[in-house]
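R.M. (postdoc): so does anyone remember the format we settled on? I'll just put the structure tokens first.
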């Protein structure tokens, strides 16, 4: 240890002497910067395109809402504000946001274990944009704003705490209670607000014309509506409960659930509907379904976009659970696993709350005044078409395939056309292995037939002579993902949507095709083959999320990705299709955020390895782009690095690729310590920005390059039955390439990976000793036991992963026992000589943590330097920020020790005893 410590000190001293000029002025990214690095969240653009609002939050600390004015180029900041909403007219825009207590105050309350009713409350801030006008409302509970028709209406609920009365009379009187007050105010009119006390819940229409709310007093429950300056009581009862509320976008109608039952379980609800013309509630449903279903409190209650349909949920009458009168020692608790169950017990338990609250789709026709139950246990999912006049809906049922989903690839389902007026259904397709889509008018259903590798469609109505057709049979190119290397049917490249003239737009690897579901018209390549010609993948960008269909009579915006160079950008597709026009294409990744409703202005983000995904404004043609945010200006003060693609020949002579991240001051005459990270393929993500942050599982390239490491990410392409060998061929050949090219120090190469990457690392060290050290997160070590394990997050068994999915064995344990053993690191642990740091958490919902235990015990028995970190109660990827900081520190201490000769921390030399847990962290501060 003395020798290593001396070398570490000398290296640091030499580096300090050498670092001069610009490099000396730049700092190294480390744990000290993580807390303050900011992220942009929930960006929005105003209807006229003048204002951009976004959250700007550090990893730890007080966030803020930034308001940018494109007219002046200036920005204003609302500190500790979040959840911002824009409302009001273009000429007089307003913003509403919630302001939370400081992080220091919240932290103090956590330490003091302050009760919920005594914690500092949130505050509402209302701000008139373009002025300094601010309105602050303390003790906020919730708020809603109208976002249509230039409405300036806001509704907010806050808590009222009666003032203390110290008079003698007050001492004898009952103590006044806190209550909730609802305020409805039009900020544009500047008139008086409307105030309602003892409000429990509320809903505001998107144009602000209708407010539906519930009151809860000591002996009264009521539902009331405010519209056109008039308040109306719709329902009142001395006992019972109120449930969900709904209003339509236009503010012309509403609906609500109520019950006279006060039991905790078993309450039956009634559904009422009203319109604002006569305000006379109509009892829609309580029960009455042919199968005995009743209205459920748990179902969604919502109007369609046009307002002609009201969706609600139904189920069998809730079970009344008798009061529990037994003491704990007289109760037997168990789970019964039965071969007759279609869903495994673990799946039932993982989804228990969902199963208890499951509802089935029913729809009320607000124009005809009739309702129908569309779904039930045999058709649990029903999707309505966009148009209110659509006669059919899409029903899906995965029930027949649940039993076999233990080992078969999940996703099979039967498709049905369901009459919305009656609930009558007819089968459309059996065992479809993909998501399906119904046309906006409800006339057709389209789906991807994975075994055939083609898109198909069928008419929803019968008796029209329109048989099932293939949408893609006449397209001379594959419609599935290229390079798909799992032992299963490849996934589809995808579907853009439906056009206004009734066609389905689908993708091949490069281009867009408009296909006729009736089969009468031949498929039309909207991009005229330009994508395939230029090796550019075009995809439709939805500028208006509320548009029911794609309007081909207008130009379209397409995202573009060059599959050869990995450049990305946007193109414009001419109206009716044609040669796409290039707008921007360069070495960035682009993300569309939104379009102004009343102006030709786009809001988008761009990023690459060294550039954070800031916000930009431009015209529809991406002309005159203007950056409107600068989330992390401090990045310029730090050493960052660069990234490039590299190519080489793997062990089989096949061309391989990977990403190489280099320090900012990379010296081609020097060999570097290298961390090799891998999962599957990475080169398509060359322009992805990973900001400095504590690791949730994996290394952050910029942090490593800033600390004078080279990071290498090889692409891995797999052969069924040989996942481990496939990884070996790519990773080992790539590491040798780095050595041969003088980049890597052959004695200072480490590996790091998580989950599937963790498994591959565990396998590699049984095959080679060329790596100085490795860090494997959540590794599968024994495929023979892992295949029978459970993904505890979903309760789903893991067999399908090995037979059809990522683990790529391609058969069951009984069909391919040799492959399971040969690909299991545990059986070859006696060959391992490489020091290994394992992280496997006891609440891992994806890989059972006993896989890490099995490997740790085997390596420990054979004298391998091995450590295993278990962050208590943490899932597959760390969520708790303190654990992320801790893991990041230990992982880099591990690499620094083996790859840079840094002194080993005490936790590596001596461990941490259980009696020292939470007291001694095993390092010197």
């Amino acid at each position: 240890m003395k020798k290593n410590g001396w070398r570490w000190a000398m290296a640091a001293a030499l580096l300090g002497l050498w670092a001069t000029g610009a490099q000396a002025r730049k700092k190294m990214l480390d744990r000290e910067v993580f807390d303050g690095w900011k992220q942009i969240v929930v960006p929005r653009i105003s209807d006229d395109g003048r204002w951009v609002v976004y959250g700007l939050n550090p990893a730890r600390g007080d966030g803020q809402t930034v308001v940018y004015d494109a007219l002046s180029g200036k920005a204003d900041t609302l500190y500790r504000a979040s959840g911002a909403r824009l409302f009001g007219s273009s000429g007089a825009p307003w913003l509403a946001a919630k302001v939370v207590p400081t992080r220091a105050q919240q932290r103090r309350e956590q330490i003091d274990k302050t009760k919920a009713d005594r914690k500092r409350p949130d505050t509402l801030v209302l701000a008139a944009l373009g002025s300094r006008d601010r309105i602050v409302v303390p003790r906020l509970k919730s708020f809603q704003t109208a976002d249509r028709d230039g409405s300036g209406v806001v509704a907010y609920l806050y808590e009222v705490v009666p003032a203390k009365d110290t008079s003698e009379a007050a001492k004898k009187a009952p103590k006044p209670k806190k209550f909730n007050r609802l305020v409805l105010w039009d900020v544009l009119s500047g008139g008086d607000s409307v105030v309602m006390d003892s409000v429990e819940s509320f809903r505001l229409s998107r144009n602000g014309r209708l407010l539906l709310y519930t009151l809860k007093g000591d002996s009264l429950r009521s539902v009331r509506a405010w519209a056109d300056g008039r308040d109306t009581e719709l329902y009142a009862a001395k006992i019972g409960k109120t449930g969900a509320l709904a209003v339509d976008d236009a503010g012309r109608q509403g609906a609500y659930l109520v019950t006279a039952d006060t039991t905790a379980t078993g309450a039956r609800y009634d559904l009422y509907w009203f319109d604002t013309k006569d305000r006379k509630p109509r009892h829609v449903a309580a029960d009455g379904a042919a199968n005995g279903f009743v209205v459920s409190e748990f179902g969604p209650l919502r109007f369609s976009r046009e307002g002609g349909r009201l969706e609600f949920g139904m189920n069998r009458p809730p079970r009344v659970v008798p009061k529990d009168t037994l003491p704990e020692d007289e109760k037997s608790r168990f789970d019964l696993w039965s071969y007759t169950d279609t869903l495994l017990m673990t799946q039932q338990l993982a989804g228990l709350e969902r199963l208890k609250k499951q509802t089935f789709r029913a729809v009320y026709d607000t124009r005809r005044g009739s309702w129908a139950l569309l779904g039930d246990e045999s058709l649990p999912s029903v999707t309505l078409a966009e148009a209110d006049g659509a006669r059919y809906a899409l029903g899906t049922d995965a029930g027949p395939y649940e039993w076999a989903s233990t080992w078969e690839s999940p996703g099979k389902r039967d498709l049905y056309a369901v009459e919305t007026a009656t609930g009558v259904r007819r089968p459309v397709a059996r065992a479809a292995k993909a998501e399906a889509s119904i046309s906006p008018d409800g006339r057709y259903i389209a789906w991807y037939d994975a075994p055939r590798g083609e898109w198909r469609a069928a008419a929803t109505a019968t008796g029209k002579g329109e048989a099932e057709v293939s949408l893609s049979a006449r397209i001379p190119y594959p419609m599935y993902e290229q390079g798909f290397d799992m032992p299963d049917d490849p996934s589809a490249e995808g579907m853009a949507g439906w056009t206004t003239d009734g066609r389905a737009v689908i993708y091949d690897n490069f281009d867009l095709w408009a296909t006729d579901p009736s089969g009468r018209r031949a498929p039309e390549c909207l991009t005229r083959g330009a994508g395939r010609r230029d090796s550019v993948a075009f995809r439709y960008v939805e500028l208006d999320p509320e548009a029911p269909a794609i309007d081909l009579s207008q130009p379209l915006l397409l995202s573009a990705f060059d599959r050869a160079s990995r450049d990305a950008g946007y193109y414009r597709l001419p109206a009716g299709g044609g040669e796409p026009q290039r707008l921007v294409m360069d070495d960035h990744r682009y993300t569309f955020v939104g379009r102004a409703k009343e102006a030709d202005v786009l809001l988008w983000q761009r990023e690459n390895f060294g550039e954070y995904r800031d916000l930009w404004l431009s015209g529809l043609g991406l002309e005159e782009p203007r950056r409107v945010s600068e989330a992390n200006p401090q990045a310029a003060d730090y050493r960052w690095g660069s990234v490039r693609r590299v190519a080489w020949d793997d062990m089989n002579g096949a061309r391989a690729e990977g990403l190489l991240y280099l320090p900012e001051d990379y010296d081609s005459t020097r060999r570097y310590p290298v961390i090799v990270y891998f999962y599957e393929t990475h080169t398509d993500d060359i322009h992805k920005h990973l900001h400095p942050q504590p690791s949730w599982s994996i290394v952050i390239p910029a942090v490593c390059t800033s600390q004078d490491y080279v990071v290498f990410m090889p692409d891995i392409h797999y052969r069924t039955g040989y996942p481990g060998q496939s990884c070996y061929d790519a990773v080992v050949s790539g590491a040798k390439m780095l050595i041969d090219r003088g980049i890597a120090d052959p004695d200072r190469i480490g590996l790091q990976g998580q989950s599937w990457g963790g498994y591959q690392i565990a396998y590699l060290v049984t095959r080679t000793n060329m790596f100085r050290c490795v860090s494997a997160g959540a590794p599968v070590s024994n495929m023979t036991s892992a295949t029978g394990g459970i993904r505890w997050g979903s309760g789903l068994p893991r067999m399908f992963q090995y037979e059809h999915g990522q683990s790529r064995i391609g058969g069951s344990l009984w069909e391919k026992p040799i492959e399971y053993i040969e690909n299991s690191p545990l059986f070859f642990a006696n060959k391992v000589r490489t020091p290994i740091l394992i992280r496997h958490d006891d609440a891992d919902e994806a890989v059972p943590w006993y896989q890490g235990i099995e490997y740790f015990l085997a390596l420990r028995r054979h004298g391998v330097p091995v450590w295993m970190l278990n962050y208590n109660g943490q899932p597959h990827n760390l969520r708790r920020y303190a654990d992320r900081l801790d893991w990041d520190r230990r992982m880099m201490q591990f690499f620094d020790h083996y790859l840079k000769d840094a002194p080993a921390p005490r936790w590596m030399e001596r461990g941490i005893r259980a009696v020292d847990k939470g007291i001694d962290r095993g390092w010197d501060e």
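R.M.: ...and that's the designed sequence above, right after the tokens. Also worth knowing: The chain is about 15% helix and 35% strand. The two ends are 19 Å apart (CA to CA).
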